[in-house]
Design goal:
The chain is mainly α. Helix content is about 65%, strand content about 0%. The protein contains 25 helices and two strands. Helix 3 packs antiparallel against helix 17 (about 360-375) and helix 6 crosses helix 14. The chain starts with 6 loop residues before the first helix and ends in a 13-residue tail after the last helix. About 55% of the residues are buried.
Length: about 525
């Protein structure tokens, strides 16, 4: 008769740092490999950078030429913000990209009666862009104040592993409508892309070329190249000639109209659309999106720290990062990117997929963003990749980030009824409430909040359309009011508390110390 299994054979001890990564936050691949990986992160960031202006600019009255300039400006500002965040912010390997959270207040500005009555489309585009810039500039103060005053560090004292699980998990799961619903817009390229990416990055990851796991490291760039060529072949052979407009827009490689309208060289500069205009209602609505960006980024930073094999960022480091992100939104307003910024979830997922969490790789990708945003034609070539190709990859990468959130449950007692309640209810409501708001908006063409005060509607509709934001409100409230005094150990607080302060764990210095000896002037708390 076989001996009963020992406890260590059926359970896994909790681990502060994720194991199995090839390069952690401060270890660097060889320069050639780092540059290729940086280019891969740049390609992935293009999906959102092209999709947001492609959606918003036509609504604003802009032409294809305007759209290209907004894409270039967004990429340029993304590059600057990513460099600032990796050098002086949290110092985690995170790409700071465009955010969909700002869509509700921006669409509200687009439909403002003072702008819709402008007859000339180009004048209306410029007027709308300047109004968006003004709102972003004012709203950015929320993150700048919360970050640099260390107020967000104080708020983070109310977070625990069990309260953070829904926030991080829904930073990935909450984007489910950006995954297969978008890939399914062109099944013939979306599904092969998904299958090929999974095969290359997972099943063939041990395939080595000169002792180099080339398929695991570069699965994204190889599969995008293969499927993009296949999509181009379908386009050139006339497969879409008599198909509906929507199919042609999603599947064809020549419908983006980016390459023909892009200038060869163009350097974006502040106030390039003219002087921003300021309106209190617009700014207040935009502040809700800035709060959503703050909460989504908090979850993303925690996920990135795990996928970079670092310890969770101490409270003051997290707050410092939020302050720099506020500066990033200020830059978005000054340059005119048509949206604010947040941590790019797909790029966080790519850290796990490649098993490379190196900070240098992300800094190189920021260099590519700036370089290709100035060289318009070359940037436009890569930006014309059909969106269903990106959406197929999101199905993997968003799921990966979500599972990192679930991995924080290892530090909690999941045999506690209280913890099951907190985690389950906040996860469910985090998915269910935004879905209600989405369905209502689709059917009624306005959100559930529909009063005469437009700023109030924008505020509520923006907050409740974000899964991580709803999850954080529910989880933090339940976690800090329900038997919280007697359940510190069950909530995972003994493990969590040592990462709250910079000196709480000796590894924090290695991961989060500022460069150029700046810690002398900004001593960690």
């Amino acid at each position: 008769m076989a001996a009963p299994p020992k406890p260590e054979e059926i359970s896994h001890p909790p681990m502060d740092q994720l194991q199995g990564l090839e390069y952690c936050i401060d270890s660097n691949p060889a320069w050639g490999e780092a540059i290729a990986l940086g280019f891969q992160h740049y390609i992935l960031a293009l999906g959102t950078a092209v999709m947001i202006p492609s959606f918003l600019v036509p609504l604003m009255g802009g032409t294809d030429g305007d759209k290209v300039r907004v894409v270039q400006t967004l990429l340029f500002v993304e590059g600057i913000n990513t460099l600032l965040q990796t050098l002086f912010g949290t110092r985690l390997p995170t790409v700071i990209g465009g955010s969909w959270a700002f869509a509700v207040p921006i669409i509200s500005i687009i439909h403002d009666s003072s702008l819709t009555r402008i007859a000339d489309p180009h004048e209306r585009f410029l007027g709308t862009m300047r109004a968006i810039q003004g709102a972003l500039i004012v709203a950015s103060s929320v993150q700048i104040i919360l970050g640099y005053s260390q107020l967000w560090a104080i708020c983070s004292r109310f977070f625990s592993p069990v309260g953070m699980v829904p926030v991080i998990a829904l930073a990935g799961f909450g984007l489910f409508d950006r995954g297969f619903p978008q890939a399914g817009q062109c099944v013939e390229i979306g599904v092969p892309m998904f299958i090929l990416f999974v095969i290359f990055s997972q099943y063939l990851k041990n395939f080595q070329f000169r002792q180099w796991p080339v398929l695991e490291r570069f699965a994204l760039i190889i599969t995008i190249t293969v499927i993009w060529a296949y999509a181009h072949l379908l386009t050139a052979s006339g497969a879409y000639r008599h198909r509906p407009d929507a199919t042609q827009r999603n599947c064809r490689t020549d419908k983006a109209n980016l390459i023909s309208t892009a200038p060869w060289i163009k350097i974006p500069y502040p106030l390039q659309w003219g002087a921003p205009t300021f309106d209190a209602g617009h700014a207040f609505g935009m502040m809700a999106a800035v709060l959503v960006s703050l909460i989504e980024s908090t979850g993303a930073y925690k996920a990135a720290s795990r996928l970079a094999s670092a310890t969770p960022p101490p409270a003051h480091v997290l707050s410092r990062g939020i302050g720099w992100q506020g500066i990033g939104i200020l830059f978005s307003g000054l340059f005119g990117t048509a949206t604010g910024c947040t941590v790019s979830i797909e790029n966080v997922g790519l850290l796990g997929s490649t098993r490379v969490g190196s900070r240098r790789v992300i800094q190189i990708s920021a260099g590519f963003m700036i370089f290709f945003s100035i060289l318009g034609k070359f940037g436009a070539l890569f930006a014309s990749i059909p969106f269903p190709i990106f959406a197929a990859v999101y199905c993997v990468l968003f799921g990966l980030v979500a599972s990192v959130g679930l991995s924080f449950l290892q530090f909690t007692n999941m045999n506690s009824m209280r913890n099951l309640f907190v985690a389950g209810v906040s996860l469910f409501l985090g998915l269910s409430i935004p879905e209600y708001f989405r369905e209502y908006t689709t059917a009624a063409f306005h959100g559930p909040s529909h009063t005469k005060a437009g700023w109030f509607n924008d505020f509520l509709n923006t907050i409740f359309l974000s899964s991580p934001t709803v999850a954080m409100m529910v989880a933090v409230f339940l976690d800090n009011t329900l038997d919280y005094k007697d359940s510190a150990k069950d909530r995972g607080m003994p493990w969590w508390v040592k990462f709250r302060s910079f000196k709480g764990d000796s590894r924090n210095e290695e991961f989060y110390t500022l460069p150029f000896n700046l810690n002398r002037f900004f001593p960690p708390s």
